Amino acid sequence: MKKITLSSIKYWSFLNLGVLLMAIGIYFFKAPNGFATGGVSGVAIILSQIFPVMTQSVYMMIINVILLIIGVLILGKECGLLTIFCSLMLSFENWLFEMLFPLTEPLTSYPLLELVYAVLLTGIGAAIIFKCKASSGGTDIVALILKKHTSMNVGTALLCTDFIIAAMTFMKFTEAGVAFDPQTGLFSMLGLFAKVFVVDDIIDSINLCKSFTIITSRPGEVNNYILKEIKHGVTVISAHGAYTGEDKTVLMTVCRRSEAIRLRKKVYEIDPNAFVIITKTSEIMGKGFRDNTN
After folding, report:
1. 179: which residues sit within 8 A by CB, 6+ positions away?
2. Per-residue pLDDT tens for 161-217?
3. For the chain, what are the domain ranges?
């Protein structure tokens, strides 16, 4: 039996938080307004309007299961257990919300406000899931299939599939037939493009680290603090100041945001005259940070 560790508890808590945020955004904000900004949830929203015999959550469950089966057959190991878990949990949580909090109309009379929450909640949730090296399934699987059999990259393929889904919201399905609904369609298109930027920005924010370049006359103490307390490696460079003519030592290291606050404070406690350059970065690959195979 695999041992349960604090890191695994944090991982699964983080992953389930992402799924929960997506479910809240879809059920409380996207579905009541008919916003279909792509994904399986968008298809389910449209199908529940055309064929109201089943609810949006049931359509989500059926489509996800079908896509997962197709994904396993065509993609093999690329369609992993985490994708299965996330997609089924997302469908289950939407169904649970339907049972506990039945909605017959939007929460407010302000569609733009609800679109903002729909984009933010689903975007943040998707970013957290991607950060956990998983996906919510659905059109992600379609995008991977298109990538495998065409020259498209995943981003382009995903945008194409989501664009088609969002474009369908310009049509409103009623008992009298099909009507043109420009407001919902325009909101869905706006949400689709906003979601792309939100997901990218949130992923960058989650991955954000700080790069330190420290020029100090007391390198030994600073170096020891980084190695023993921050527990990161340090690159030591011998340098010569052109203005002062003095020999200096340059220390280079990277750390996470919480560690950066401690390091900045400690450096100036050790050497009040230190010259420190701190830059933001979200792409650090190597031991202790991001695996360079991903």
Report:
1. 171, 172, 173
2. 778 777 877 766 555 445 556 887 788 888 888 877 777 677 677 777 888 999 988
3. 6-206, 208-281
